[in-house]
Amino acid sequence: MPDGLYPPMPGSPVTYLDGEINASVTTITVKDISALPLPPNIATMGDGADSETIKYTGKSGNSLIGVVRGFEGAAREWNSGTPIANVPCAHHVT
């Protein structure tokens, strides 16, 4: 396993943003926090070429905290209901 590889979660469950976020927020509220692995870890918002992978250092209630935006891809605004999941990304293979 490469150094720095975060633990995966079987089946890559998906949850959704619970509210709009701008490009600078460091706390992100989701519909079902249990769909994301224990911190520290990474998660990807959106899909396709415009997706953004974040790194988070903690969970509190239904929120990801200590979020580093643009871990892969550019930090940007996202609408409520945007999918977010722990899916394979470039970080997993580099």
Strand line-up across the major sheet: 1-8-3-4-7
What is the N-to-C order of secondary-structure elements (H for helix, E for strand)?
EEEEEEEE
Q: What is the number of helices?
A: 0
Strand content: 25-35%
In CATH terms, what is the fold-level topology?
Thrombin, subunit H
Global morphology: globular
Count of extended strands? 8
What is the correct CATH architecture? Answer: Beta Barrel
**Rg to the nearest angstrom?**
12 Å
CATH class descriptor name: Mainly Beta
Structural class by helix and strand composition: mainly beta
Major sheet characteristics: 5 strands, antiparallel
Question: Which segments are poorly predicted (pLDDT under 50) over 5 or more consecutive residues?
Answer: none
Question: Roughly what is the average pLDDT, rounded to an integer?
Answer: 88
How are the secondary structure elements laid out?
Layout: E1 14-16, E2 28-29, E3 41-45, E4 52-56, E5 58-60, E6 63-65, E7 68-72, E8 83-85
Antiparallel strand pairs: 1-8, 2-6, 3-4, 3-8, 4-7, 5-6
Structure commentary:
By secondary structure, this protein is mainly β. It has a single domain (14-89), classed as Thrombin, subunit H (Beta Barrel). The protein is 0% helix and 31% strand. Strand 5 and strand 6 (63-65) form a beta hairpin. It starts with 13 loop residues before the first strand and ends in a 9-residue tail after the last strand.
Keywords:
about 0% helix; five-stranded antiparallel sheet; globular; Thrombin, subunit H; three-stranded antiparallel sheet; mainly beta; about 90 residues
